[in-house]
Specification:
By secondary structure, the protein is mostly beta strands. 13% of the residues lie in helices and 44% in strands. It contains 2 helices and 13 strands. Strands 1, 2, 3, 4, 5, 7, 8 and 10 form an 8-stranded antiparallel β-sheet that branches. It has a 5-stranded antiparallel β-sheet with strand order 9-6-13-12-11, with no helix packed on it. Strand 4 and strand 5 form a beta hairpin. The protein starts with a helix and ends in a 5-residue tail after the last strand.
């Protein structure tokens, strides 16, 4: 009888522990509105620097991936002025049920980088499409010199429609008046329906710092929850 009573007590104890553990499980059905992470080179070989996820009103996601730079070499414009360039890429994945209208633009003016006094830069948007099969190519496969020769002294803009369950990739080129002291990092992100492009010199692991240059550059029609 003592053996049976003891066995009964153990069974009741195990059931109680299982019920308690159930109450402590994370609620997987609760979706965060935004999520970001900084990575090096993922196992998929995409070399994604930052990834941002946003949910619409019914929980379907918009994903923004930003790549690492290529280049860091010198470019001389038709007037003989020398710049230091870097080529970046951004990919937007539309997992929602609606087409998204992407609009981005940058003026012809230069920006100052707060963390690097004396460094000014331009941002340009080639019209070429960046595809994932180009991630290992020099300058990600962009014909950079031809693009810059024709567009360096013009404002840049980009407008695309991204259909449901599709993605679109594009290039972003930065032109500095001189090299920076550190690793140059950039990335596109979303606040409400406004797009911002952040430029920083990576001296720390913190992506959000007051010394970065954040530029309001466009919009996308995602209806966040």
């Amino acid at each position: 009888m003592k053996y049976i009573a003891g066995l009964f007590f153990i069974i009741i104890f195990c059931i109680s522990c299982k019920e308690q553990n159930k109450t402590n499980l994370p609620q997987d059905n609760i979706k965060s509105e935004t999520k970001d992470k900084v990575t090096s080179s993922g196992s998929d070989g995409l070399h994604v620097y930052t990834k941002f996820e946003y949910a619409d009103a019914i929980g379907k996601r918009l994903i923004i991936q930003n790549g690492f730079p290529r280049g860091g070499l010198k470019y001389t414009d038709p007037n003989g002025k020398v710049y230091v360039y870097a080529v970046f890429w951004t990919r937007i994945i539309n997992e929602t049920d609606n087409p998204l209208e992407l609009k981005i633009s940058f003026p012809v003016d230069s920006y100052e980088l707060p963390s690097s006094p004396g460094r000014s830069f331009k941002i340009l948007l080639p019209s070429d499409t960046m595809s994932l099969d180009k991630v290992n190519l020099f300058n990600y496969g962009l014909d950079l010199e031809s693009f810059l020769d024709n567009g360096i002294h013009k404002s840049s803009s980009l407008k695309r429609t991204i259909n449901p369950k599709e993605s679109s990739g594009f290039y972003v080129v930065t032109l500095f008046n001189k090299g920076v002291d550190g690793a140059l990092r950039t990335g596109l992100s979303l606040k409400d329906q406004n797009l911002f492009y952040r430029v920083k010199v990576d001296g720390s692991k913190n992506y959000n710092t007051s010394s970065d240059k954040e530029i309001h550059c466009g919009s996308i029609n995602l209806h966040l929850k």
